[in-house]
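Example record for the data management plan.
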Amino acid sequence: MSVKNFADSKKGGLLSFFFFLLSALWVAPIIIVLYNSLKTNTGITLSPLSFPNGETFAGLNNYINGITHGNYPFYLSLFYSVIITVFSVFLILLCTSMAAWYIVRVNSFFCKLLYYLFVFSMVVPFQMVMFTLSKTADSLSLNTPFTIPFIYLGFGAGLAVFLFSGFIKSIPLEIEEAADIDGCNAVRTFFFVVVPIMKSTYISVAILQMMWVWNDYLLPYLVLDRTKYMTVPIHIQFLQGSFGRVDYGATMALIIICLLPIVILYAFSQKHIIRGVLSGAVKG
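Corresponding structural encoding:
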């Protein structure tokens, strides 16, 4: 082995070790929450970093207590979270992909201005508009799980249009012109020609938006009527007893339940996410 190859291999080994430590730091909180969800409250309070033993092991009792705790059913919170997430992601994918296609292909001054407005919306902090948004949502009756997806559409449009626009710029215009010659109108060209090409970008945008909507706490907390509707993050926040006593074991058990669907979905779709983000952010 030459000196250069040895230096390169040593450098690669150091980088691999560094990224291994960085990954461990990201995964460590999830692992801590996971084994604490199997411990008693006393075990969590006295030694939160230790693994469960014979005295502190609670088994699945925390999961049962978390699901059955309180007067508001957990399955109802889970149902509302699923409804909000599915409808929000569907609206974001449908509306923003069509908007991005129109912006890129028309490419007029108005479309360029619209594109920059979408991008600018990404840097506007939610805290600047949350109180006005809460009042507007009440006045427009957008304070239910079936109407709040329209609010998520507005907040999620910036990133989605940015990614879709970047990928559409890399699609050869000749493909769409060939479809037009074959008799396809604009709607058929988009859904039968453009959409299949954007599969990776659709998956990446869907996963990113799903992770955001599913785990979002602040927007549903401000907009929804909490006496009628609760999402899973809000349900976890209200998992406490009298005098502010918190059942830490049940709380961590519900956090694991909340994390599990997104982690599984991300694990099976990560190659599409990386490909779609690179295509949307680099090409064009």
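Summary line stored alongside the record: The chain is about 75% helix and 0% strand.
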